[in-house]
Amino acid sequence: MALEQRLQHVRERIAAACARSGRLPEEVGIVAVTKYVSADMTRQILESGITDIGENRPGVAVPKWEALEGQGVWHFIGHLQSRKVKDIIGKFQYIHSLDRWSLAEELEKRATAAGTEVKAFLQVNVSGEASKQGIAPEEAESFLREAAKLQRVSVIGLMTMAPDCDDPEETRPVFRGLRELRDKLNATNVYGKPLTELSMGMSGDFEVAVEEGATWVRLGTLLVGGEQI
Ligand SMILES: *Cc1c(COP(=O)(O)O)cnc(C)c1O
Fold this sequence. Notes:
Its cofactor is pyridoxal 5'-phosphate. This protein is of the alpha/beta class and 229 residues long.
């Protein structure tokens, strides 16, 4: 399938998931995960009308960002080593993987030095799998209380990764758990401003995530494909 068809197909599936759950398709943003493909393919993605690009390795992403002269809106979606923060700050507007306090401090320090700001999702390990990054759900409140003091890092929502399942339905409790956590944090207003966003859902499980309230889905294989063009 050509890129335009894949995009059309994904949009239809998002719209159907929204219809099933009483949501509007405009509430769901698509991050095209380009980590498997070249800068040229990434350029084609941007030309297809997608504006948001997701990457997970600074060493690969930064040359791509430079090749594309920073067109688009860039989302950092993978585990981020603190010593790499300086490479991506000012280039990536969104960090989906804020998973520890030392990273928040490094982001604040580097954003201040660069005179920029960054929007972050607090990554939460809802499933509790040892292999998953993210803070434990019960740590979110104290983390946000501290994060509210940061000047340059703005937490806009939560992110999670569901376990790999053959049946996407099995991921539902994880996505629902993230939404319920966000609602609970908003109810106590611990951060001082509402957490509006939920980054959840990948190629294999995005429809369930949308039904459970995702405001950003991160799509690689299904949308971008794995091929190099
Ligand atoms: C690779 C990746 C994705 C996209 O995965 P697909 O299954 O290819 O859609 C989404 N989120 C994160 C954090 C990733 O690393």
